[in-house]
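Fold these two proteins, one after the other.
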Amino acid sequence: MALPIVALTGATGFIGRRLTLALVEEGYLVRALARRIPPGTEATDTVTWVKGSLTDDHALRKLLAGAAAVVHCAGCVKALDRETFYEVNGAATRRLAELAAAQPTPPRFVLMSSLAAREPRLSAYAASKRAGVQAVNAFRDRLPVVILRPPAVYGPGDTETLRIFQMAAHGFIAAPAVARARASLVHVQDVARAVVAALALPQPPETPIEFDDGTPGAYSWSDIAAAAGAALRTTPKVVPVPAALLYVAGALATVQAWLTRRPGVMSWGKVPELLHPDWVSATGTFPGYKPLWNIEKGFKDTVTWYTSQGLLTT
């Protein structure tokens, strides 16, 4: 009996690499889309590659042909302008869903969205992630859709979270000065576990699924500092950063991005997200999903990887 094929976008990214392994371990065949196939990742019995991009209809049709499911992990998290966010997270997502819905047997469509999508007013990124959700929902009459909204994802391979551990190693963590701010977190391996659970749901839910590491009430910056300190054997202090200073940093980052043509996650538009007090997942778990990584275990795992890569000295 042929194994089911999962068409995967974003397979070369931080989450996608872990997800590919998890899908194979679960007994799926993975067909992955990539603009550039990474060296040393030639096709195998369980993973094949389709060379192309989200704007290449020929590649997308090849990716989707005969697939039992689509997991759309590809997305834009940093850009020089609003239009780029919408082109990738909105328009490209819509085209992928449209082509999937046109298949003789439409596959289950799992969209990796973000908690940011529930607050579209905050930033161009958040608004574009909401646009992606709306684009996929437009095909619900033909396409079984599951929308996942993870919170901040960390773990081995993530270079964005590295700065938190670098600060903690020096005895402090600079954090937005927001009263009662709390945020959910999730380890990348649990994200992969959530996708596997989403593929097995008997009935796709009508509303997005918010999930995290299962910690009730999520985390404060003090909690994050304590866990990072435990992983590094330090005792970092939380240094509150006023909103005005965050906007200065965001403005400088935006100017630098325009001068170098290399966007970063930090920008003027990112600041409202940083100042938002509630990034707590609404539910935390869902049927079939059981997170295994709490912040203490997860941060130690992450620090071990950073150290092994020479990115962090403990």
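Now the second one:
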Amino acid sequence: MTDRSLPPLPPAGPLSLWLDRIDEPLEAQNLLASAADVDVAIVGGGYTGLWTAWALKRRSPDIRVAVLEREFCGFGASGRNGGWVVGELAGGVAAYEGRSGRAEAMRLARAVFDTVDDIGAAAIEAGIDCDFAKGGAVYVARNDAQAKRQGELIAHERALGFTEDEIRALSAAEASELVGASDVRSGVFFAPCAAVDPAKLVRGLRRAVIDAGVDVYEGTTVTRIEPTAVMTDAGTVRADVIVRATEGYTRDLPGERRTVVPLYSLMVATEPLPAEVFDEIGLHSRPTFADDRYAVIYGQRTADDRLAFGGRGVPYAFGSAITPTLEHDVATHELVHRTLVELFPQLADAAITHRWGGVLGAPRNWTQSVDLDPSTGLASAGGYVGEGVAPSHLAGRTMAELILARNGDDADDELTSLAWVNASGRKWEPEPLRWLGVVGTRRVMSTADQIEYDSGRESRRGRLASKLL
């Protein structure tokens, strides 16, 4: 930890850095005025909902699709995240291997790898300028315990069959050349990852689906979902298929309080930094970056030469509450800022211009899923645990094919048979068990990180807590 005093943080604003720079009104547009009748109703105007609508209209231009969003498209995690288009699955291959076998789990993993390039291509096709830069992800080890885990990770990935072109070990010198952080011992380079401006992506996608003929209703609160009916504050929307794409906000729907837990993640962004700073810290090809502590951190160099950096501090609020108080928690933002300066001491005097936060959704089995019940037409997709920018695109395409198959149309079997189809698990425990489990495990992991930094020795309690969570 640095003992040097840091510049004071600015007041938390209502918008993320990304949304604050959007050059268009962010007020809700086209509120639902009365009852409606469509083929597919999608609840949630983030990446998953919009990619599903995009895929449906590309495959079946005449299908009637409506997206229902309580605030405005990109209000939630899609407009606030760290901008990592990373081809990773929460839970990894192991989360799917037990139910589908290793070959199918690996097929899904590589499909998510491919999705990174698919998003770049889709952005070009739709005319979305979202600062997409495929520089990979670099994870640095900054103590011996982290370096040991990196060695074990590479051995594990090789045993699964992942190649050097997909993931590889870096020496201390190689890692420092890419990410000039302090105390680097080793690194891992993960190729299927790009940096992006997430708000430009989600708002551009909104425009693209509207242009394709999708009815996007913002400022429309969904109060209940039932087979063939979405009840809203403006009337009932009838649909043969209803897709719930609400991620961390799922807890607001009746009967869904324990489906996922909303976990908080908070970010800061620096002022634009001069070229000489990047001469020291690297990031020339805009790789995303993190170290290998148990507590999650993540950062990127933005297209206008800021560092946008985040971490998960206050993890969870009792009862799955979502409150701006925790999204703007100053103590957590100060911790995130200190951590950034630990990584890059050159930034001690750099001003922080933005700080914000939001929630991500974590299912009980830590497994992303795309579900559709053909008998009821009720569907859902998500459970990304903070890694949804890339998988949401594949989830939207998967969902579109499942809907087409239900309608008796020709569908892509390669997508409808992916291992995450109908992979949702049981609900979370009731309170206070939910709070005790999530908060207790997170605290153990934070303590484990401190032990490893102080001693350099691996903390077994951190490894155990990570497996439990």
